[in-house]
Design goal:
By secondary structure, the protein is of the alpha+beta class. About 25% of the residues lie in helices and about 25% in strands. It contains 5 helices and 16 strands. Strand 4 (about 95-105) and strand 5 (about 110-120) form a beta hairpin. It starts with 6 loop residues before the first helix and ends in a 7-residue tail after the last strand.
Length: about 325
């Protein structure tokens, strides 16, 4: 992955890029100013990907790193079934977004780090207290990671994230993303808790932390498919892009979920681009998803980062 001496610069530039797109929406695809969780997630995936790529290029290329970023917007995450801490059977969404960082410099399988993010609008003074039954059910899942079942379309059988042999703990598999509202939105990552205080790690800094060599606390390694965490991440990445989505307001019709753009990729022939070209229309700002009819009926928002090294002769 990337040496620690570059991480502070990458974090600062990514924070600035994300905060800008949160304020305006993904202008590159004509998104209106976001006001709700769905709109802010869309802004990060659709507009934040090329914005971060543009900001990172002058930092990474002289150091000999090649980074590709890709995003898929597909709201309505998989709903999972599990038994909560009180012994009751519950259902809730798995998360709002999956972030994956891959080290493409090694052998096979590619080393991969991932985290699931549940986006929530922060309180007016910052932070967030969870009190509704739905929020507490979600918190129970993200803070304990009991065995859970995914819906039809995913491999059957309970997933137990405690079987992951990689460094870290099950808690590293999930984070909350607390989003300050307009007119000065910011996205901050926090560990799951019933009462989350103001502050936290800004999303851009969190993404930079995920690609730092030897990082700890920025997601968890999910290399291969031998354990339930790695297998679940792998399945989410494969199931996501093949589904359709529709919205009750703001977007007519149904559209493929495979709205992927490689926003920036330096290869040996310098084939990268400073901004991605999205092949499909953006989702609306704010808004709520209709129930999908396809089987499997759910997907998840995916933000994917790949890191490689480039030959010194190809550096600019």
């Amino acid at each position: 992955m990337i040496s620690s001496n570059l991480i502070a610069r990458l974090a600062s530039s990514a924070n600035a890029a994300i905060n800008s797109v949160l304020r305006t929406g993904a202008a590159n695809v004509g998104q209106a100013t976001p006001t709700g969780e769905v709109g802010f997630v869309a802004a990060v995936v659709l507009g934040g990907v090329p914005a971060i790529a543009t900001a990172w290029r002058p930092i990474l290329r002289p150091a000999g790193y090649s980074v590709s970023l890709a995003g898929v917007f597909c709201h309505q995450t998989p709903r999972v079934s599990f038994v909560d801490s009180m012994g009751k059977h519950r259902q809730c969404e798995l998360a709002d977004m999956l972030v994956v960082a891959e080290d493409l410099t090694g052998g096979t399988p590619t080393r991969r780090w991932a985290t699931l993010i549940q986006a929530k609008m922060a309180a007016p003074a910052g932070g967030k207290s969870l009190s509704s039954q739905g929020d507490l059910t979600q918190l129970d899942l993200l803070s304990r990671w009991p065995p859970f079942l995914l819906p039809a379309g995913f491999a059957p059988g309970a997933r137990n994230l405690s079987t992951c042999p990689h460094a870290g703990s099950a808690l590293d598999c999930g984070r909350y993303g607390l989003i300050d509202p307009q007119p000065a939105p910011a996205w901050r990552q926090q560990a799951p808790a019933a009462a989350m205080p103001p502050g936290g790690t800004q999303l851009g800094a969190f993404l930079a932390g995920m690609i730092e060599s030897g990082q700890v606390g920025y997601g968890r390694e999910a290399t291969g498919v031998a354990d339930d965490w790695s297998r679940t991440v792998d399945e989410l990445m494969k199931v996501t892009a093949g589904l359709a989505f529709s919205y009750a307001a703001g977007l007519k019709g149904r559209h493929p979920r495979g709205n992927t753009a490689v926003a920036f990729a330096i290869s040996s022939d310098d084939a990268g681009h400073g901004s991605g070209a999205w092949r499909r229309e953006p989702p609306p700002s704010g808004g709520h998803s209709d129930q999908l009819e396809d089987a499997p009926s759910e997907g998840i928002n995916l933000l994917r980062i790949g890191v490689t090294r480039i030959d010194p002769d190809q550096r600019g």
